[in-house]
């Protein structure tokens, strides 16, 4: 019996959906379906998978255009190097403008330093409360709507920054670019909402597979967005890229708002319900709930549970910290070191992401499943390869 049935909800549900555990009979029934019926079955079980794909793709699509916009503003507005020099840098004809390129890169690097702090620190503080609040109330939908709204507003503000190009310096452009994703939780809140929602509606038999599909949707969104970004930027310009990204985020917002339904099983639990904005504020910023969550996460357990959790958190920080840091500067690095334009960089990024995905699939299927290699061994191999790749890129001259 699932949680909905425990709460006394008598609303009839489709037996083919994931909200009820799939028994052996159900699996056999699925195998006997026709092709059209299987398509309908898949459609009835698709929930948050399109949400993550539609969130990642336009976000990555706008990323390259945003970086180019910042470089243009640094050159033309802040440093005032003139149209001839800035146009030559944009066209990657920098033979006589190496000084200008270096100064633009220095300014952008200093701006990206505090941008990264805002982009990560604010969502981290928000996640401490929104995670506990979402678990307590069972509301995952808002965790998906908030970051989508933040990315949508960022696209609109980027179009505003493009229109008032010479009136807004690069510092304000970057602040307007990062403020909404930071205040709405950004990618972190989206991951929290989608993966938690999928965990709520799936059974033990199907959860791992559905989580894998959700990860695949995220992985697919990266190369599609990055592969199209350079080409669209060259032929459609800033307005075209930001408009497409905003339109996709708006479609995604409507899909979550009208198609995705929050589970209501927690609403019937015996608990004190607070009403009004004040009640919501007290319920959201509940330090007792936050304390309880931390105590559960770090409580003692068998097999050195607390130590293992601390080590896993350390590994996550050491993994995603350098990854996000590299992503923020890799484009300006390739411009400076290899004299790449946006199209060459998008091709390189797409190739890198596709190769990484194929390598991950090979590693999981061969080393993990067939050779039964330990997860720790796979992790060590990953970090060795990552160190070799980063060192080679860093030392490469052309």
From TrEMBL:
Molecular function (Gene Ontology), one example: transmembrane transporter activity
Keyword Membrane recorded: yes
Top-level lineage group: Eukaryota
Keywords from the UniProt entry: Membrane, Transmembrane, Transmembrane helix
Pfam families: MFS_1
Keyword NAD: no
InterPro entries in alphabetical order: MFS, MFS_trans_sf
Topology term for the membrane: Multi-pass membrane protein
Region (Disordered): 1-22
Transmembrane regions: 46-65, 112-133, 145-166, 178-199, 211-232, 238-260, 309-333, 345-367
Cell compartments where the protein resides: Membrane
Any single GO CC term annotated in Swiss-Prot or TrEMBL for this entry: membrane
PANTHER family per record: FI18259P1-RELATED, ZGC:174356
UniProt protein name: Adenylate cyclase
Naturally occurring in which organism (per UniProt): Spodoptera exigua
